[in-house]
TrEMBL record:
InterPro entries attached to this UniProt entry: Glutathione-S-Trfase_C-like, Glutathione-S-Trfase_C_sf, Glutathione_S-Trfase, Glutathione_S-Trfase_N, Thioredoxin-like_sf
Transmembrane portions of the chain: none
Source organism per UniProt: Fulvimarina pelagi HTCC2506
Protein's UniProt keywords contain Mitochondrion: no
CDD domains documented for this protein: GST_C_8, GST_N_GTT1_like
PANTHER family in the cross-refs: GLUTATHIONE S-TRANSFERASE FAMILY PROTEIN, GLUTATHIONE S-TRANSFERASE-RELATED
Name by which UniProt lists this protein: Glutathione S-transferase
GST C-terminal domain ranges (all copies): 90-204
One family name in Pfam for this protein: GST_N
Keywords: Transferase
Amino acid sequence: MGKRIKLYFNPRSRAVTARWMLEEVGAEYELETIDFEKGDQRSEAFLKLNPMGKIPTLVLGDGTVLAETPAIVMHLADLYLEAELAAPLGTPERASTYRWLFFGAGCFEPALTIELIAKLKEPLPSSSVGWGDWQSVLKTLESTLAESNYLTGEKPTAADIYIGAQLIWARMFGAPGIADNPVLSRFADRMAARPAHHRAFATD
Ligand SMILES: N[C@@H](CCC(=O)N[C@@H](CS)C(=O)NCC(=O)O)C(=O)O
């Protein structure tokens, strides 16, 4: 067993959800406080771990860095199977688990954020919205894709299909910061060139 899991944490943040999951699975972990007022989340060292500058950010005993609350929650469920919070791979229950995790991040959270902005009648700062801002999103993708051809290394995974599709669409719609970004553009080209991508547009 390597070092203990470290969770970058602040009690007034979404990192509480990651800590809740650590408690659910019975993991041994340590907390590293991120003091928002001091700007710890913008330090060079922290941005190296998570260029979004956000918590929760988790570092596993083997050095693996994981961000995004639903990914952290799911991976911990996989690592601690004895807690029985992960349905087996390929089962309908597992499929449903993915559905609700992504629904949480992709539907519930943005819908809630927009609702709160309407209620407060003022925009929320990028520090409070889950997606931060466009520049940070692009920087996060760029910093990973500058190191490897695909998001998780030198072999494509499902993540490359999904993010690839988003980048291809965003570039097509003229979203700023993609066509003129060599790293992101090369990745979009690489993904667009896949035969299965061409077959996805078949009309017969
Ligand atoms: N998409 C991220 C959102 C995380 C997030 O927005 N965290 C906030 C605290 S709740 C944060 O770290 N804000 C600091 C900042 O952006 O400066 C997730 O679901 O984990």
